[in-house]
Amino acid sequence: MRYLALAADYDGTIAADGKTSKATASAINRLRTSGRRAILVTGRRLEDLLAVCPHLDLFDYVVAENGALVYSPATREETLLGKRPPASFIERLRSLGVYPLEVGRVIVATWLPHHTAVLQAIQETGLELLIVFNKNAVMILPTGVNKATGLDYALRKLGLSFHEAVGIGDAENDHSFLARCECSVAVSNAVPSIRETTACVTRGANGAGVTELIDEIVANDLFRLQDCLPQHLIAIGMGEDGTPVTVPPYGVNILIIGPSGSGKSTITAGIAERLMEQAYQVCIVDPEGDYGSPQGVITLGDRQHAVGVGEVLGILEDPKINLNVNLLGIPLSDRPEFLGQLFPSLRTLRIRTGRPHWLILDEAHHMLPREWGHLSDVLPQSFGETVFVTVHANHLPSAVLSRIDVVMAVGPSPEKTLEEFSSASGHALSWPAGLLHSDGKAIVWFVRENKAPFAAAIMHARGDRIRHRRKYAEGDMRHRSFYFRGPGDRHNIKAHNLAIFSQIAEGIHEDTWMYHLHRGDYSKWFRDSVKDAYLADQMERIERRDLAPAETRRLVRDLIESRYTLPE
Fold first, then answer.
1. Which pTM does this prediction carry?
2. Could you tell me if residue 289 is left (phi over 0), alpha (psi between -120 and 50 degrees) or otherwise beta?
3. Does the N terminus or the C terminus of the chain have fewer Cβ atoms within 10 A?
4. How many CB atoms lie within 10 A of CB 225?
5. What is the Cα Rg of the chain in Å?
6. Domain at 1-77+145-230, CATH from 3.40.640.10, 3.90.1070.20, 3.40.50.1000, 3.40.50.300
């Protein structure tokens, strides 16, 4: 299920003339029976609501007083999310002739045209208060308190986020919580400003409109509205015409393929950042410890600590936390078994909470090897919202490849990369004439749509880009290693990472060291293989200076250590 909660206003929405019909109450009960949650969001005081609504037990939570009070009908627990204005302010309103005047636990409310007197009292007292209008009602609240903040509290208590919620309302004070819900709906009797800003308007008014919405949620999860929510699309690249290439946030699997250093991490980091910017929860599974601690992400596990599935699930219970699962503490041969335990557990969490919204599997072939015999026991019949990152498509099982919706190929030979995917997955490839690879671009193929692959610019993360620092510092760079050969190719000494490079640099013969220095080989390696432009620029400055060999060795060592933490 995509939508796990309905947040509904009371007056003018589920209620007409202050009363809820039996048909509407029956519909809310059907919603709950389907496994979804119901939250009432109202400007009314709780005591008023208890007096007029006999169906509060149908709701998991009641957000009352326009977001200032959250009530649990099951436990009768009340939580205040703000403070009532001081008694002196209320007395000043009364002295100004504001009547009627309703005083709740936090909210103070009256009616038009007393808003001018309310504003005068706020100016005189110098209090930081907010005036909210709801048709003819005038509500005074602490700043920062509205229906959206109250709903946020209720959803977090349920372990849900706004992305699992559908909101329905009718009046001006509903704007805040409707705008935050993944999908917003207006009843037909809603004020124009609400009807104009929601994804759809019901045919029926009041409770009939709510019933109509609930029936559609239960029947098909609002399938017809999936293309009516452009604000939630996720950009994965930039097209030739300057418009973003986007995917919906639900029901899509992405495969990012290419050789080491070709830009896979840049694409993945950008997608992850944009998901998190839109408050989608992301879980990264990082087999090689390449992701470090990206901004806004908690990292669990390291070389000394083998992370457990229970730890992962415990952290992901909070919808506002994004997680990087570092598998360095788990032996390579045990990683498929770890994913075999994690994947079903995450699926269960998704069924219950809708989260994590997206799963990113870096070096996916480590956890899903092609010949792994337990794959059918681990993978559900259908899954979505997963990014698979790998070097070769044919390293992954065909059962995974058959469920890919979008392929992004990077590197010098994207045509061969996509041909490999086509052969392994069974999706027919038609390579368009004139389509060429160029630096900074990926070839994007929407495999289930009737259109050919096309080029799109890679979109970098706006924050610190996720970089393969550990691999360059102490891993194996393989064909991108540096070879100390010296004049006349006297040597063939391989430095397969920066740590080994620094060690060799300290002891290699002076002629060999200076031979590569004067040729600019070190800066070229830093730029082309390590992919660190800053390191390369600084190295070029050292190469151009007339320094003693020992001084150049020291400067290079210090430069590398300042950028990378090398093992001792």
1. 0.77
2. left
3. C
4. 17
5. 30
6. 3.40.50.1000
